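ugh finaly. both done.
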Amino acid sequence: MAQVMANEGRPLRLGLIGTGVAARELHWPALRQLQEQITLVALCGRTMENVQAFASHVAETGGPVTLPCYTGWADFLDHPGLDAVLVALPATENLQISRIALAAGKHVLVEKPLAANGDEALQMLALAAAHPQLVTMVAENIRYSSALLRIKAWLDSGVAGRVYALHWQAANHMLADNRYIASGWRTDAAFPGGLLLDAGVHYSAGVQLLLGDIAEARLLTSKAATHLGAWDGASLQFTTRNGANGTLDLYFAAVGQAGFRLLLLAERGSAQFDGHTLLLHGADGSCIEEDHRSDDFGYAAEFLAFRQAIATGTATASPFAQAWQDMRVWTAALAQPGQVVQY
């Protein structure tokens, strides 16, 4: 069980490792809303120039006016009073920094996916098991999304009956200068899962949140561009242990496309979500329409869950073990494209 924070009422003192796109566009906007609960106390990155630029951005957007900046992990982890670290680095670095941070007695929240490959993911699980007094969690925001949690509550109520199908389509046209592609690591040989693994874990997490574990799957890959790695699209056809069937269609070279659509079919209802509007249809012809545009897709909620786990010892929805369950759907299927893989 994770050790409980000595003073549950005080803010969690969080250090950030990595000051790139994810930190700037996803994590800091969420943390900015939570400064009474979580205080950003130190930054670490590859170059002092980049770290200081991020510190200036934080100050200019309502955060601490001054933040200690580091380029060395050891000095950063020695920062006085540091409780926990957010690792917003490429997945290829999650294992190394998690090992060092846990050895230093820090709670760890790493960006998804859990690791660069299956072998490193299993080492991450071993690290978590070796440090049960510390919270080890993956920043899988989809498990904290208000829309998906609303669908889950609707399903759990029993009103919709048995789910028999889920189809999730996401298509975008990612050019070579796209900020997520320009960083390089997602298309590097050191990260063999590429875009399908990096983005795909969101969708497998969503499926397994709503329907339970995926039992088997087959991956049909595609390649339409030269700058997006080995594969730039795929259809994952799956069956869950509960007997539902579905597809995850992810395409990153889809000209003129941007966005996603989730369709869930049950015996007595259906659900649709396009990233903004959630529709819940009942067998009686009723339709509940909810606007979820004010939600940040769960980023703030996942930080609060991380703090809560540290403060009270409660479990999170995205520990390392669950993140591996979401990740292995893709690593196993990518290892045998076109073949049925059982989990």
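ok and the 2nd:
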Amino acid sequence: MKIRMNKDSINRLETELLGLTLKNPIIVASSSLTDNEKNIRRLLNFGVGAVITKTIYLGKRVLKSGKIMTNNNKGLFNTTMYSKKNITKWLDMLSRLYEEKHPVIPSIYADNPKDLAKLALALQKIGSPALELGISCPNDTNEDTASRIYEYTKKVDSIIEIPIIVKLRGSDNLQRDVLAAKSGGAKAVSISDTLPGVFIDRESSPSLVYECGYSGVPIKPIIQSYILRTRSKISGIQIIGVGGIQNSSDVLEYISIGCSAVQICSAIYINGIGVVPKILDDLYNDVQNMRLTLKDIKVQKARGK
């Protein structure tokens, strides 16, 4: 399906995020889908607002390949962590994309704040428009602390000029974590990274148990609850909604509760890459039929409280 991208659709879906103007609020989340140039270009050609790379890692650990498993085509279990590509390959690939003015945001992680700042500076030098700090992966960190989030964010913010997104995990401590990211200099937070989960493979003998991240449709109302409560308490930082988005209606739900943009991932794994242009086309039609812009939807929600 080919999305209509005339001037009216671009204006109605135009999204302001981190001081950047995106043609729509749909961002493809960091995942194995965004670990190579071919996939990134294909997603951009569909017309998404931006793509976030698989998390680029700077450190000494040897990264193992993970698995992605589905639960009745609704939930997604993920044991992967960071990209296995080295920094040089990423810098080369991203340099080509930036020469063509593509909206690609690197996701980054390192074993300590100093190395993360070093990686961030290298990416800023080649033209990255923004960075997402992937510091809350449940497959790597058991529990975030406010001090850890602040230290990572502050160190990166102190050395670069481009805006920072911090990807956080939904939890009872989310508001504390958002405030820590904001205090460290983040301009936006992505809520939420995958939630801690367990996948039990009973087809194996004996059964295998995987500790992993869990995402997809079943977590959507949980993440929306976290976002709604956070948005009501904390201002001055943008929120990108992440969790269970399968269609245009889901996108508008996240926008209506105060998100500036959304990230999609599980829908592509479950339904195939063709779901991306369908969501974009349906979103254009829905907003067109309402005769509203995305900004209008947020304003109407606020007035209706």
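summary for the 2nd one i guess: Residues 3 and 281 are 5 Å apart (CA to CA).
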